[in-house]
């Protein structure tokens, strides 16, 4: 699964033509929201054939750098400009031969080619950033092209509908019914930057957990059920273990029981009462019992469908144990008598 990039309101936005995409690439979703268009406002296209390109469409005016052109009249300048326009017109005609009704370009599109596309009924979207056109090509099933001499060799993108939508104060172009199956764009909105940052972190964590679950499909019961099960087994083993090791094992079991305590505290319930009820239920052999934070009681996690990723739970335990061991080693070194 590729990394997840979530663009908030105003993030990395330099001008109105900047493209904004969310990249949920893989088995989950792919961003399909692009900002700005040079096509007719309010345009709605159905059954769209899309040509995605990275080519210069801004040469309908004279742009000569580092050189000098001498002419003896302004008519000569007009002839040069006309030649540039004819070259651009031929290029647009080659693009139109692909049988498209939407053209998306990585670079700028000047007024003259825009007029030609509009006259042919083709929506033109300019200045989509390079990562943006790559994601759009991926989700629509097309390829990024730079030359247009062989239309039969070009792979076009497809989607069922392109329309303008309003999100907040921004006008965006929405691609729906894309060729690569399900796709979506997640737009985060909040009153403050801190709320947006927290929402982004939460969404990122959820997607990472989902990615791990796709790789490792095993799950365990949530709601503190797994921690109470492990704590019970460790406590039973500590009772049969002689020596000081039993003290360490009891402390480990107590640390495991802290997770359902924290869950109850965060929900605003009496953690001492709930954890005591949960511990008693597990002692009676009800190994699927956990915390029901909707009702403020204990409940059967199998009936409620509360599960967690086995891989994530395993990594949490390993990381916590390694961190605790590292702190204990450092404390021993600090307390060691000088030689």
Q: How would you describe this structure to a colleague?
A:
It is built from 10 helices and 11 strands. Helix 5 (225-239) packs across helix 8. Strand 2 (45-53), helix 1 (74-96) and strand 3 (102-105) form a beta-alpha-beta unit. The protein is of the alpha/beta class and 339 residues long. The longest helix has 26 residues, at 310-335. The strands form 3 sheets. Strands 1, 2, 3, 4, 5, 6 and 7 form a 7-stranded mixed β-sheet that branches. Strands 8-11 form a two-stranded antiparallel sheet. It comes from Oncorhynchus kisutch. GO terms for molecular function: ATP binding; ATP hydrolysis activity; ATP-dependent protein folding chaperone; unfolded protein binding. It is found in: Cytoplasm. This is CCT-beta.
* C-alpha Rg (nearest Å): 31 Å
Mass-distribution shape: elongated
Sheet-strand content, in percent, reads 15-25%
What structural class do the secondary elements suggest? alpha/beta
Binned, the helix content reads 40-55%
Question: Which spans of ≥5 residues are poorly predicted at pLDDT below 50?
Answer: 1-41
GO molecular function: ATP binding; ATP hydrolysis activity; ATP-dependent protein folding chaperone; unfolded protein binding
Subcellular location: Cytoplasm
InterPro entries: Chap_CCT_beta (IPR012716), Chaperone_TCP-1 (IPR017998), Cpn60/GroEL/TCP-1 (IPR002423), GroEL-like_apical_dom_sf (IPR027409), GROEL-like_equatorial_sf (IPR027413), TCP-1-like_intermed_sf (IPR027410)
Family: Belongs to the TCP-1 chaperonin family.
């Amino acid at each position: 699964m590729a990394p997840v990039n979530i663009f908030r309101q105003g993030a990395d936005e330099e001008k109105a033509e900047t493209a904004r995409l969310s990249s949920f690439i893989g088995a989950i979703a792919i961003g399909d929201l692009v900002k700005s268009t040079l096509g007719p406002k309010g345009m709605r296209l159905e059954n769209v054939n899309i040509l995605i390109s990275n080519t210069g469409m801004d040469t309908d005016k004279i742009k000569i750098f580092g050189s000098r052109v001498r002419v003896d009249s302004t008519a000569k300048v007009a002839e040069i400009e006309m030649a540039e326009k004819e070259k651009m017109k031929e290029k647009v005609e080659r693009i139109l031969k692909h049988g498209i009704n939407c053209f998306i370009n990585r670079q700028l599109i000047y007024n003259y080619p825009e007029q030609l596309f509009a006259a042919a009924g083709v929506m033109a979207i300019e200045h989509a950033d390079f990562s943006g056109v790559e994601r759009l090509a991926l989700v629509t099933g097309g390829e990024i092209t730079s030359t247009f001499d062989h239309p039969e060799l070009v792979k076009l993108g497809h989607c069922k509908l392109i329309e303008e939508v309003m999100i907040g104060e921004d006008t965006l172009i929405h691609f729906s019914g894309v060729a690569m199956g399900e796709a979506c764009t997640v737009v985060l909105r909040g009153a403050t930057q801190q709320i947006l940052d927290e929402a982004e972190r939460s969404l990122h964590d959820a997607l990472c957990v989902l990615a791990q679950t796709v790789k490792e499909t095993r799950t365990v019961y949530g709601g503190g059920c797994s921690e109470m099960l492990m704590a019970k087994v460790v406590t039973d083993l500590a009772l049969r273990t002689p020596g000081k090791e039993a003290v360490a094992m009891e402390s480990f079991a107590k640390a495991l029981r802290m997770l359902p305590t924290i869950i109850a505290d965060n929900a605003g319930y009496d953690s001492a009462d709930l954890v005591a009820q949960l511990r008693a239920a597990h002692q009676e052999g009800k190994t699927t019992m956990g915390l029901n934070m909707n009702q403020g009681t204990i409940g059967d996690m199998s009936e409620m469908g509360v599960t967690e990723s086995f891989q994530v739970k395993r990594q949490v335990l390993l990381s916590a144990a390694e961190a605790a061991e590292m702190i204990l080693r450092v404390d021993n070194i600090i307390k060691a008598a000088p030689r």
